[in-house]
TrEMBL record:
Molecular function per GO: DNA-binding transcription factor activity, RNA polymerase II-specific; zinc ion binding
Organism of origin: Armillaria luteobubalina
Pfam families, per database record: Fungal_trans_2
InterPro entries: Fun_TF (IPR021858), Zn2-C6_fun-type_DNA-bd_sf (IPR036864), Zn2Cys6_DnaBD (IPR001138)
Protein name per Swiss-Prot or TrEMBL: Fungal-specific transcription factor domain-containing protein
Amino acid sequence: MPLIRNGKTGPGAPKPKGTRAKSGCYTCRIRRKKCDEARDHNGHCNTCVRLKIQCLGFGDKRPKWLTKNKCDEILTNIKRFLAGGSVLSPETSYLILRDEGLEATTSPSDSFESSYDTGFALFEDLGLDNLAEPVELEGNFRSWSRGNVLLPQSPSLSYNAPLISYDFEPEDYFTPTALSLLSFMDVESTLIDAQLDRRYTDMVVGMQYQFSDEGTRTEILHSIQSPGRHQASTRLLAFIHERRHASPLSIALEDESAQARYSELMAALNDPRSYDDDQAMASLTMISTLLFDGGRGDWQMWLNLVVKHAHILLGQTPRLALMRCNRKQAFLIKACIWFDVLASVTTQTEPSFLHVTRELFSPNISGISDVNNPDSDMMTVMGCESRIVWALAEVSALAAWKQQEMDKGRLSIMKLVQRAEPIFQCLDEPLNANDHPASRNLCSEVFRVAARVYLLSVVNGDFPDAEDMEKAVQEAVPLMASADNAVVRSTVFAFFVCGCLTNDNVSREVLYEQLRREGSIGNCAAVLELLEQVCMDPRGKQEPVPWRRALRKGNLLLV
């Protein structure tokens, strides 16, 4: 039987050179990285918890078992773990560096008993850290927690069949070499993936597309049943959601393992030779990942990928193509149009799908925007009437045209007003669709009144004290004040634009408070921060509000 290492060094090994540094946990010392020395309720340093690596504890002298060879082995495992985290295949979700149960006096047979019954038994019998008490998270999602590793409580995630195939003698099980042969971490990763899938299904998809109808969500969930990039991206999104919930003040994508997963998906999805519907859905989810983690990042890159694919699907006849494509493709196209239109507010360029929104959603053209055709209506995708999507796209296009004319020194105010008139007519008309849930109707109305404020800022300039601007904001604020969480999170565009273009402190505080209420999951906190910066910027009344410059510089996507 292979021998257990007892910590004794062999001939020729260097003699101990006294105690190691007396600060930091042993894991961080082995990594030669600074340890924050702040400990959680289990006594683990926050650095290790954040990296999802086992904390080996604190002390003045190195433990006898922690030989030089063991340190080298641990360092190699840590480097491999941090560099190779993958969401595209089963992979370690938490790195165990030392199983203290191996050095206990437990008999081998004790460790095998009942390990065939459930997923929990395996973890308990291996002598890992004691599991914490059950923690209630959100919705119907309950989990057990050990450090930052979520282990399932739900019977649906338990297993009645053996989790590991034992092809070796029981005594081999208790050697470090044999332990590395176990697919222990693969088992844990499978459980983690199941948890992430359930978290996405139970909570995250409803937050990602808050006003999509049941049929759309069913199609999305069906799409991630098979392994692929879309499934991998939703697991990353669920992971980001969990981390933001656990650590509201931290950026989840700064986690090294999350960065590795994000980078791998970026490499996989950037291959134009294999880009398909699954990858386009994954790219949309990557935009959501950035939104859930604060709203900043390279969302433009992901959007560009989806835009190219959507243009291919639409071809030369967008209306006909959208009616002929399957439900998944229809959702993908409409979601892409929505992201593109709101992104144009930040980029201050003409939307990529301007010709498409004109053909599909113009109120002057009878087409798929017909309220009697709900399967093709943007209300069932993003909670916004199709004609309002058209209006938002036209305002962004008008703003881009105005800037071009000003740059050339030939802006005609009369022509500007003429171009704006059809948009005003559209936005003056209240809600058309009354057969939707009240929250979805309110969401669309918030977009309508905010789009009017946006349009006035193009025609009049960014001057809050203009009479018609004051009136438009006063009409919008009561609607936003009555908005529930789902409406607030979906209409951050409205909160930012209206908040920037009012000098009324009472109205502005109402908008501030609604955004504060939403906490840190999503981009509400980032929108609030940027809004406060714009409003605190000293300027004279004769000066326009520099909200466009601040938004472009902040690269914040108002979705």
